[in-house]
Write the structure tokens for this entry.
Amino acid sequence: MIGLVVVSHSRQLAAGVAELAGQMAPSVAIVPSGGDGQGGLGTDYVAVGEAITQADSGSGVVVLFDLGSAKMVADMAAEEAEGSVVVVDAPLVEGAVAAAVRAQGGAGLAEVAAAAVGAGSVSAASVVDGEVVRADVELTNPVGLHARPAALVARALAPLDASVVVRFGAESADAKSVLALMGLGAPGGARVEVVASGADAAEAVRRVQELAVRGFDE
């Protein structure tokens, strides 16, 4: 499984982003590396290298950073790493969450890196064409499609051969994107439409329905 490293000038910021992304993808190694190693703001080349080693299970590591000089340190550490490491220029929080969920779904290094980069430009999903499976689903949890339920949906659908759209009012979202689902703003008790096409369309809709029946495990 792909690992992640979060590099920040602030130890607290790196730890917070790693904790948040970890809530969405509990099986993914997400290692923070923040601060100058002496309790101040900055970055530590040695610490970043150690974080990469810790995050790498053998499949590769995606490194995210906050500011320009952190990229320089991350690039240097990546060059010295023994495994496959990709440093991505992506929004730190959104990129970490998107990459973590994609990694949790078993995606490869390039796909996880692309998910991080693409998190900066979330757009409405296209209408699903062709033969489709549809279902109206009630959001039975108290707060609707916030971060954790959205992550559960995205993780459940990630391995399936299906294009899945969730519609709420006039808005639609790619159901495999945590950020897009959160952007719908669908509250608890709302009804959404799930529309899927592809070989696994029926299974995709069934999985979303099952999560809703369980209250998204909340």
Summary: Residues 11-24 form the longest helix (14 residues).
